[in-house]
């Protein structure tokens, strides 16, 4: 069993490995994966608001990346009737995303960053940072001081 593709606007670069159980689902948006990337088993990549993944990215198993979010501001209206945001997600080159992470709409993960296993990324992460937790917080820089 290989990766499953649903949608027409999906681009996968050269020398990428999409492991068994990976799903790429555009829902009318687009997904672009750079060269030399690995997406490990049972990861789901959605494309509603656009998903851009750079070169040399590693995404561990059971991660979900969702470039959309429900609007839920009006308690008198059913959530499903309030629409959604579609800001998109950008993941820079040479990023490592640990197992079981959730990457949510509107974030950019800067080049060379590491996202610790189980993290929920709700805000952008600067380049060469290590971020962990729920919600994910930057705990250190990978740059030499």
Topology:
Layout (H helix, E strand, L loop, with lengths): L3 E3 L3 E3 L4 E2 L4 E3 L5 E3 L4 E2 L4 E3 L4 E3 L4 E2 L4 E3 L2 E2 L13 E2 L3 E3 L4 E2 L4 E3 L3 E2 L4 E2 L4 E2 L7 E4 L4 E5 L4
Parallel strand pairs: 1-4, 2-5, 3-6, 4-7, 5-8, 6-9, 7-10, 8-13, 9-14, 10-15, 13-16, 14-17, 15-18, 17-19
Antiparallel strand pairs: 11-12, 19-20
What does this structure look like?
- Helices cover 0% and strands 37% of the residues.
- It has a single domain (4-141), classed as UDP N-Acetylglucosamine Acyltransferase, domain 1 (3 Solenoid).
- A hairpin with a 4-residue loop joins β19 and β20 (137-141).
- The protein is mainly β.
- It has strands at 4-6, 10-12, 17-18, 23-25, 31-33, 38-39, 44-46, 51-53, 58-59, 64-66, 69-70, 84-85, 89-91, 96-97, 102-104, 108-109, 114-115, 120-121, 129-132, 137-141.
- The strands form four sheets. The protein has a seven-stranded mixed beta sheet, with no helix packed on it.
- It contains no helices and 20 strands.
- Keywords: Acyltransferase, Transferase.
- This is Acyltransferase.
Mean pLDDT: 97
Shape: globular
- Helix fraction, binned, reads under 10%
Termini separation comes to: 45 Å
**In CATH, what is the homologous superfamily?**
Hexapeptide repeat proteins
In total, how many domains does the architecture comprise?
1
Please indicate the percent range of residues in DSSP E strands (runs of 2 or more).
35-45%
SSE string, helix = H, strand = E?
A: EEEEEEEEEEEEEEEEEEEE
Q: Number of DSSP strands?
A: 20
Class inferred from helices and paired strands: mainly beta
CATH class: Mainly Beta
Largest sheet features: 7 strands, mixed
Strand order within the widest beta sheet: 3-6-9-14-17-19-20
Q: Residue ranges: pLDDT <50 for 5 or more in a row? A: none
Number of helices: 0
CATH topology: UDP N-Acetylglucosamine Acyltransferase, domain 1
CATH hierarchy: architecture = 3 Solenoid
């Amino acid at each position: 069993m290989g990766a499953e593709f649903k949608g027409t606007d999906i681009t996968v670069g050269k020398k990428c490995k999409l492991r068994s159980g990976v799903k790429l689902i555009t829902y009318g948006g687009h997904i672009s994966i750079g060269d030399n990337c690995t997406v490990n088993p049972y990861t789901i990549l959605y494309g509603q608001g656009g998903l851009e993944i750079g070169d040399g990215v590693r995404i561990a198993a059971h991660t979900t990346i969702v470039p959309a979010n429900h609007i839920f501001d009006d308690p008198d209206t059913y959530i499903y009737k309030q629409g959604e945001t579609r800001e998109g997600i950008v993941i820079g080159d040479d990023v490592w995303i640990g197992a079981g992470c959730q990457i949510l709409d509107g974030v950019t993960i800067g080049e060379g960053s590491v996202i610790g296993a189980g993290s929920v990324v709700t805000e952008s992460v600067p380049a060469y940072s290590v971020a962990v937790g729920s919600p994910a917080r930057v705990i250190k820089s990978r740059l030499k001081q």
